[in-house]
Specification:
The chain is an alpha+beta fold. It has two helices and six strands, in the order E-E-E-E-E-H-E-H. A four-stranded mixed β-sheet has the order 1-4-5-6.
């Protein structure tokens, strides 16, 4: 939908607490506010992290990979989510 660098992600967590997180790369892909972004706070990058340590709907990117991925994305590029 759009890209912004840098950006601040603001919202409400599942437990009702509000958050405000600075990110270097943000590319929104849903009307509800989900998108691709770097996640410097994430430490679990295993293939099974989603089972117990997932996101609130966004596609978290490792900070070292985020710049390249962000630069490869185009505004309004289709995103398919499984």
């Amino acid at each position: 939908m759009y890209k912004q660098s840098p950006s601040v992600l603001k919202g409400t967590s599942d437990n009702g607490s509000k958050y405000s997180s600075k990110v270097q790369y943000w590319a929104q892909f849903t009307d509800s506010g989900c998108g691709f972004h770097d996640a410097s706070w994430r430490h679990n990058w295993s293939k099974t992290a989603y089972l117990n340590d997932g996101s609130n709907g966004c596609a978290n990117m490792h900070p070292s990979d985020a710049g390249g991925a962000y630069n490869s994305l185009e505004v309004n590029e289709p995103v398919i989510i499984y």
